[in-house]
């Protein structure tokens, strides 16, 4: 079985492309020249990045350690330094705890679901079996670009207990469909399905790019070894797709931990705060003008995002 | 990957049929809201609000579009949106591929740290940096300027991450071979590596364009006179009121806003379809 | 990474030094208004306005330029969606215009930033509806001028009510409930009265009942939700849900179609619904519905909202800005403005004009406006209101006890405070 990871560190195990060649790097180029080249490539980005992203982040971190409110915006330096008070207050805030639970459930189910759906769609469209690929590609991407207003109208209608499609279909098999969006235990799962539907196109596009870059000869070699389609998928596609899968997983995780639009438009966090997400709670707090508190909540969210990403890097990442 | 050269056996044909069926069903499911949005933009306000929603317009009208184009200074906002989105997309394509290449293939001190910082920035929730970013931009004198609309987005951590992951799977041998041939680093990047990145660049282009085109909050806050508004801001102006929403205008606006994105998608998709044929990684 | 570390240390150090020095900003009461110079307005006046007002104001203001040659009014239209954010951010970066439209519920927060200029004597407060003027006052100082107002009334299907035996508008709490029930039993209506079961803004439907029962609820210094009058009002509100007169899960956007179809007998809303219902119901529908003042318990008191106009302290053309606002709030100009965008005038005298007094529905709104109340302009109101909405949702949907609801709101309100 071919190992798919192409090593970037010299003298390590190399993939199937060049069996037997140890591939040394940097033997003919001086260290300092590489350093200069590296930074030359990275410089324009780094400057822009430092100014427009790093500085605001530091400022907002400091903000989270104060009791800054919107009313202090004209005199931001007059606020009180309260250390970790905002963070402590978060954990005794019942709404924040509820939002955290809701968000974690959403991510735990939503991320794998979206990845699998996106990968399935990308694989199907990449296989030579299907004509009209362009049509399907555009079609599956449409939810990503459709206005959230239109999506909300259609999904609200779909989930309507009286006139909606879902409950009418269920009635055909004799099940009395519930009022999805107004049921405290079903609203969140409904939003998970809706978010998956909305976002799998995004992942599909990314996975397609990854799939396109897998060299054909790997599949041919596998077929010569007698591998069937499923085995080809497991032993060639998945390993080669690892960096892309990692990317997809991390980006989706980041996005879903910051779930906001769906509950905002569909349920306004209800019913009874069962679909309140952490981002929505933060948005409300910014709206109330509790800038320091909201910033603290944002950085707690940040820690969660970092945690999830690290986990994914551990599972899917390169041995760099 | 292509299995087209394999003979189409009976089992293959059945598999194909099932696949088509599933995909077609899936297509219907995803296309639904988009179709409704499109069709409803031709309906009068009362019909749009009807429950259950109607599909085909009972009284089709161009009124929403007529109102949209007469009330909005459409060419101006369209131009602004196009300019900003194009600049941001181009900037990201150039800067992110350069940094992604450096992070994936070059070795320099601080490389690990830079990647961690960039990744970290990707993970900071967007809301929290908004006000400090605006204060910074206005202190730099960039409010109500195109520079203020574009600069904060030229360096996207998302793009760097995408390109780095993609570039990791470009085989080292090609680069080594070019180096051995005496090519300078920049030439290697421009002539050897970048052409291999068709699919990734197309993807990054599509996603960046989409994000920039639909950006609402930042242009709203940075522009202090209407001539710098982008399309989403202008549309919100006319469709969302204090107590009621004009759905007709909103949907017509949404259709108008989505069309360029779809065009970019189709064009770039074609580019990267062509990429398969030439990407013979042998 | 050393460079970055050094930068980080520098920023924190700077921040710490700066913070040790200055005190918190003032603003939010106790300020003396500066007077406005005599003579005509001159120069450029920059104005931010939302929605339809933003669209039409530029053309409308040309008349002001005619009366004040040398003065031009430059209007930037701002979308309602995120307007609050835009103004707050502009204040933070000191990039404010001369004048801006401000929602009544944002008043307290923006006044407290110290960014607003106190209203000068040029403007006569007695000309306005008292409830509207109160929305501009923070700690006995007024920081804006009411521009247009709105209030909430009971919309009901008068044809179905007649069928159910109610020939005139319901006047008391008991009458309202009786009419709603009768419409269900005798006129085939599914929901006699549709009330908002919690969620954002439900306080604007609930508080009128508390106010009508004599409860003060909120002043600039005190939030008193845990009072018997409030509990009584909450119990009355809840009874509509428990007695199945009001739905707890009405899907968005179905209110108007259902009202037109005769499935909903009545609901509570503001003046914008007149146009919406006429649009939805088509020709002749305006004969089928009517509006009634909030039913009386100890009084008939509704909620007053709308928008105010404020001048910023950083304004480049302060005097002319105030003169522009004075012009906009002249009774004749308010009437003309109503005829342009259908905004109800905040100036009482305008209501004598036939354009308003001759309308089918407007006089009822005008009468209610005289006594309508608004919450105090405190900087924490939005947060208190949100807590209130959450408890009302539990009251309506989960059957939470009214006394417990009032207590829960009081506890939360106490911890939030009045921001003073």
Q: Helicity of chain B, in percent?
A: over 70%
Strand content of chain A: under 5%
Supply the helix-strand structural class of chain B. Answer: mainly alpha
Return the CATH architecture of the largest domain in chain B.
Orthogonal Bundle
Query: At the fourth CATH level, what is the homologous superfamily of chain A?
Result: MetI-like
Low-confidence stretches of chain B: 1-5, 274-282
Molecular shape of chain B? flat
**What does the overall shape of chain A look like?**
flat
Q: Name the assembly state.
A: heterotrimer
Q: Find the CATH topology of the largest domain in chain B.
A: MetI-like fold
Secondary structure tally, helices of chain B: 14
Strand content of chain B: under 5%
Unreliable segments of 5+ consecutive residues of chain A = 1-23
CA radius of gyration of chain B is: 23 Å
Through-space gap between termini of chain A: 21 Å
> CATH fold name of chain A, please?
MetI-like fold
Q: What CATH architecture of chain A would you give?
A: Orthogonal Bundle
> What is the C-level CATH assignment of chain A?
Mainly Alpha
What is the tally of beta strands of chain A? 0
Say how many strands of chain B there are: 0
């Amino acid at each position: 079985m071919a190992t798919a990871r192409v090593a970037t560190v010299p003298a390590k195990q190399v993939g199937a492309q060049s069996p037997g060649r140890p591939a040394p790097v940097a033997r003919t180029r001086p260290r300092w020249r590489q350093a200069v080249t590296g930074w030359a490539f990275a410089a324009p980005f780094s400057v822009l990045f430092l100014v427009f992203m790093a500085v605001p982040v530091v400022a907002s971190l400091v903000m989270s350690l104060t009791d800054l409110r919107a009313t202090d915006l004209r005199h931001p330096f007059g606020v009180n330094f309260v250390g970790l008070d905002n963070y402590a207050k978060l954990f005794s805030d019942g709404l924040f705890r509820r939002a955290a639970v809701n968000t974690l459930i959403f991510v735990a189910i939503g991320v794998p679901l979206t990845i699998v759906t996106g990968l399935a769609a990308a694989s199907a469209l990449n296989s030579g079996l299907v004509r009209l690929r362009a049509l399907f590609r555009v079609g599956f991407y449409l939810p990503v670009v459709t206005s959230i207003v239109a999506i909300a109208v259609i999904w609200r209608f779909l989930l309507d207990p009286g006139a909606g499609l879902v409950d009418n279909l269920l009635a055909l098999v004799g099940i009395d469909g519930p009022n999805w969006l107004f049921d405290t235990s079903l609203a969140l799962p409904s939003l998970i399905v809706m978010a998956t539907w909305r976002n799998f196109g995004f992942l599909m596009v990314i996975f397609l790019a990854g799939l396109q870059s897998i060299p054909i000869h790997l599949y041919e070699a596998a077929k010569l070894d007698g591998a069937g389609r499923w085995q080809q998928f497991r032993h060639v596609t998945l390993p080669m797709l690892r960096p892309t899968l990692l990317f997809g997983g991390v980006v989706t995780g980041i996005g879903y931990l910051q779930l906001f639009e769906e509950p905002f438009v569909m349920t306004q966090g209800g019913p009874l705060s069962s679909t309140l997400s952490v981002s929505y709670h933060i948005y409300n707090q910014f709206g109330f003008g509790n800038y320091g508190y909201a910033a603290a909540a944002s950085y707690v969210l940040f820690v969660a995002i970092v945690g999830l990403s690290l986990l994914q890097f551990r599972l899917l990442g390169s041995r760099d | 990957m292509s299995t087209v050269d394999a003979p189409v056996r009976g089992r293959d044909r059945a598999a194909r049929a099932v696949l088509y069926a599933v995909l077609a069903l899936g297509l219907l499911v995803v296309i639904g809201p988009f179709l409704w949005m499109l069709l409803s933009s031709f309906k009068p306000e009362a019909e749009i609000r009807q429950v259950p929603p109607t599909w085909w317009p009972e009284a089709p009208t161009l009124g929403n579009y007529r109102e949209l184009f007469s009330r909005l200074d459409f060419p101006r906002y369209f131009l602004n949106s196009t300019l900003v989105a194009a600049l941001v997309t181009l900037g990201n394509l150039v800067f992110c591929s350069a940094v992604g290449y450096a992070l994936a293939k070059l070795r320099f001190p601080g490389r690990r740290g830079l990647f961690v910082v960039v990744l970290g920035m990707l993970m900071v929730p967007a809301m929290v940096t908004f006000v400090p970013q605006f204060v910074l931009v206005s202190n730099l004198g960039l409010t109500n300027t195109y520079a203020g609309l574009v600069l904060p987005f030229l360096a996207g951590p998302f793009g760097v991450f995408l390109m780095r992951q993609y570039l990791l799977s470009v085989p080292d041998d090609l680069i080594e071979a070019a180096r051995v041939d005496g090519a300078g680093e920049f030439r290697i990047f421009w002539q050897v590596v970048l052409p291999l990145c068709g699919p990734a660049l197309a993807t990054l282009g599509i996603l960046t364009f989409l994000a920039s085109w639909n950006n609402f909050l930042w242009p709203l806050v940075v522009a202090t006179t209407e001539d710098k508004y982008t399309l989403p801001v202008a549309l919100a102006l006319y469709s969302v009121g204090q107590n009621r929403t004009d759905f007709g205008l909103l949907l017509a606006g949404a259709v108008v806003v989505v069309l360029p994105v779809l065009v970019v998608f189709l064009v770039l998709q074609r580019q990267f379809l062509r990429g398969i044929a030439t990407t013979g990684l042998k | 990474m050393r460079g970055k570390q050094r930068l980080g240390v520098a920023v924190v150090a700077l921040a710490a030094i700066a913070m040790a020095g200055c005190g918190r900003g003032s603003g939010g009461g106790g300020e003396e208004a500066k007077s406005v110079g005599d003579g005509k307005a001159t120069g450029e006046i920059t104005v931010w306005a939302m929605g339809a007002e933003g669209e039409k104001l530029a053309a409308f203001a040309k008349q002001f330029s005619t009366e004040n040659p040398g003065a031009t009014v430059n209007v930037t239209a701002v979308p309602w969606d995120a307007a609050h954010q835009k103004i707050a951010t502009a204040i933070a970066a000191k990039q404010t215009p001369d004048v801006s439209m401000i929602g009544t519920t944002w008043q307290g927060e923006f006044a407290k930033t110290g960014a607003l200029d106190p209203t000068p004597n040029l403007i006569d407060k007695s000309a306005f509806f008292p409830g509207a003027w109160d929305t501009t006052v923070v700690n006995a100082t007024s920081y804006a001028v009411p521009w247009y107002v709105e209030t909430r009334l009971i919309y009901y299907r008068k044809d179905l009510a007649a069928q159910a035996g109610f020939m005139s508008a319901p006047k008391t709490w008991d009458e309202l409930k009786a009419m709603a029930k009768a419409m269900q039993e005798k006129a085939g209506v599914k929901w006699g009265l549709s009330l908002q079961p919690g969620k954002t803004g439900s306080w604007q439907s609930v508080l009128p009942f508390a106010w009508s029962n004599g409860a003060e609820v909120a002043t600039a210094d005190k939030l008193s939700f845990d009072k018997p009058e409030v509990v009584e009002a909450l119990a009355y509100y809840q009874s509509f849900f428990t007695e199945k007169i009001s739905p707890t899960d009405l899907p968005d956007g179905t209110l108007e179609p259902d009202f037109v179809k005769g499935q909903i007998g009545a609901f509570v809303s503001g003046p914008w619904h007149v146009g919406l219902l006429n649009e939805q119901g088509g020709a002749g529908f305006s004969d089928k519905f009517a509006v009634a003042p909030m039913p009386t318990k100890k009084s008939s008191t509704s909620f007053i909202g709308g928008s105010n106009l404020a001048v910023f302290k950083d304004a480049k053309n302060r005097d002319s800005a105030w003169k522009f606002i004075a012009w906009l709030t002249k009774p004749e100009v308010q009437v003309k403005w109503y005829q342009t965008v259908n905004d109800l005038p905040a100036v009482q005298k305008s209501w004598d004009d036939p354009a308003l007094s001759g309308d089918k529905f407007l006089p009822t709104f005008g009468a209610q406006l005289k006594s309508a109340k608004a919450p105090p302009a405190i900087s924490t109101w939005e947060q208190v209101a949100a807590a209130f909405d959450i408890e009302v949702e539990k009251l309506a949907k989960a059957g939470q006890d009214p006394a417990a609801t009032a207590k829960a709101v009081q506890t939360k309100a106490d911890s939030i405070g009045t921001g003073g």
